[in-house]
């Protein structure tokens, strides 16, 4: 399909890759993963950390987006996400504690309060997962691909 023309088969290739990595790649990104030896094994990790990464065509590597290129910016992003995790965890814990307190008075309506607490915990773990994606992105940037030399 690539030999027939990458532009004409882009949509078909995109559907095939989406089944593997669950992300919609731009044409130059998909071209890079196809053309670079050993890069396809990084596709799933790149898809999960795509918010922080980009493909640098001139250097033929995966690099941080300009916003996250400095370590200080990544540290601030981690701090922001961890703060949200901490706030939602405390909020969820407080709401669940209140639901047990109100259960003695109100009975069934405490169920709705408890559900709100569980929702806060789900949000907290979402932000914790986002924090770990920055670490995965840093590992992916440091990943060394095999050389682009073709041996006959």
Characterise this structure.
With 152 residues, the chain is mostly helical. Strands 1-2 form a two-stranded antiparallel ribbon. Helix 4 packs antiparallel against helix 5. The longest helix has 36 residues. The two termini are 23 Å apart.
Helix content: 55-70%
Q: How large, in whole angstroms, is the Cα Rg?
A: 22 Å
Tally of individual helices: 5
Low-confidence stretches: 148-152
Q: Largest sheet at a glance?
A: 2 strands, antiparallel
Let me know the average pLDDT: 82
**Secondary-structure class:** mainly alpha
Q: What's the arrangement of strands in the largest beta sheet?
A: 1-2
Cα(first) to Cα(last) distance is 23 Å
Summarize the structure.
The chain is 63% helix and 5% strand.
How are the SSEs ordered, and which strands pair?
Elements: H1 10-21, H2 27-35, H3 43-48, E1 53-56, E2 61-64, H4 71-106, H5 110-142
Antiparallel strand pairs: 1-2
Helix pairs in contact: 4-5
Which properties best describe this structure?
about 150 residues; mainly alpha; 2 strands; about 65% helix; elongated; disordered C terminus
């Amino acid at each position: 399909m690539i030999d027939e023309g990458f532009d004409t088969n882009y949509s078909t290739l995109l559907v095939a890759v989406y089944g593997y990595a669950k992300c919609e790649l731009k044409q130059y990104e998909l071209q890079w993963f196809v053309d670079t030896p050993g890069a396809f094994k990084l596709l799933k990790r790149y898809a999960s950390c795509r918010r922080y990464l980009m493909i640098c065509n001139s250097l033929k590597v995966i690099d941080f987006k300009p916003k996250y290129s400095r370590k200080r910016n990544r540290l601030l992003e981690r701090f922001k996400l961890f703060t949200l995790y901490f706030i939602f965890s405390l909020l969820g814990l407080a709401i669940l504690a209140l639901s047990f307190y109100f259960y003695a008075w109100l009975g069934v309506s405490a169920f709705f309060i408890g559900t709100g607490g569980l929702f806060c915990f789900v949000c907290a773990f979402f932000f914790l997962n986002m924090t770990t994606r920055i670490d995965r992105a840093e590992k992916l940037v440091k990943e060394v691909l095999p050389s682009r030399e073709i041996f006959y």
